[in-house]
UniProtKB/TrEMBL annotation:
EC category name: transferase
GO terms for cellular component: cytosol
Keyword Cytoplasm found: no
EC number(s) on file: 2.7.1.5
A GO biological process held by the record: rhamnose catabolic process
Domain Carbohydrate kinase FGGY N-terminal: 7-244
Name of the protein in its database record: Rhamnulokinase
UniProt KW ATP-binding keyword: yes
Any one Gene Ontology molecular-function term assigned to this protein's record: rhamnulokinase activity
Organism: Bacteroides nordii CL02T12C05
Keywords associated with the record: ATP-binding, Disulfide bond, Kinase, Nucleotide-binding, Rhamnose metabolism, Transferase
Amino acid sequence: MKNSFFAVDLGATSGRTILGSFSDKGLELEEINRFPNQLIEVRGHYYWDIYALYQSVIDGLKLVAKRNVSITSIGIDTWGVDFVCVGKDGHLLRQPYAYRDPHTDGAPEALFTRVPRSRVYSLTGIQVMNFNSLFQLDTLRGNSDSALAVADKILFIPDALSYMLTGEMVTEYTIASTAQLVNAQTRKLEPELLKVVGLTEEHFGRFVYPGEQVGVLTKEIQKLTGLGAIPVIAVAGHDTASAVAAVPALNRNFAYLSSGTWSLMGVETDAPVITEETERLNFTNEGGVAGTIRLLKNICGMWLLERCRTGWENISYPELIAEAEKAEPFRSLINPDDACFANPADMQEAICRYCAETNQPVPETRGQIVRCIFESLALRYRQVLDNLRNLSPMPIETLHVIGGGSRNELLNQFTANAIGIPVIAGPSEATAIGNVMIQAMTAGEAEDIKGMRQLIHNSIPLKTYKPQNSENWDTAYIHFKHIIS
């Protein structure tokens, strides 16, 4: 009987469970269930429903059990930085805050009055963003948060779900690295920064790396699902780390763009790159698989369009793309990472206001809005890639676009046009594939990352986009840099 691996892949807007296995044709994936992941707003704060996510995972396991599929192991990946407080009795103390909650506005500046920004960056190499766990914890401590005050353990979201399944508490390296609490050189939690927010290493679970076993399903979960004592593996718990593991590159001369709600553009290195230049540019050094570092930049991604669609009755992507293709090129451009786009009540209105304030034509149609978003993202990608070329120890010959955004043909072509090198799109299910592949390596079905990537390259249809209209895009880039300055 072939091995089957159960991957739980949770994003900031939806989640799904995937069954992965291998055949003569290569890697095969089957979606078991898909479910929403919605922010809960209560009294001015935003939370995640960890219990709803847990129940959806249980539902997926039940569906597999009914089919008598033999599951070799289970792995969980999620978005970064958010965490759950656990009491001494082992119970979750409340629903976790969501990173989009406004309570951390100004939090970095508050912390930097006590420890210099340069010191924090030199230790962690992590991009300063107000919602990083370091700043969330400092904010909660400053607000005398009742849950944090009595917390025995802090568990990041994938580790919290693993705990709910196994009863074992761990802190997985790649997800912890997003917190700005891990020393980039030692690859361990940094005591100096823990002390700043009133914590110690004892407040976290056993530190583990991708491929280590967390535990097995508890007796309760076995009875609930009809499954046996299946191992839960600590895969790359951060979804981007799992996705990057699945980049189907045949050599290391590439950059990657994990394209979804967020766009994360970077390169893979063997050691952290922490310099005055990376600090000035606010680049991050997050943990990767097999001892690698993901030198990258967080860029606002399809969040812009997703929020616009909520006011358009969620019109289909093909319809929006068709409208964008007909719209005038380079009519209006925005800085996707401007603070005004973080979580506005009305994204379309925020885009129009930005254009008006920068003395550009205000978009009047959906097609103009969508084209503005896509062209602006492509030009922002070029800006970040130009910086990466100066920072990367390897030449960058291609850009691999992975994740859901790899299916966006118009944006892929715009990106190739903007950056001037080929864009290779796929796989769209990179995060789930990376999750499955780490489990497969643990089970002995794959030898190393290089072998994994070769297998993915041979198993998954890929599409290459070559640069077009370079002169027009070069001119637009100059205009873009002028606008955002």
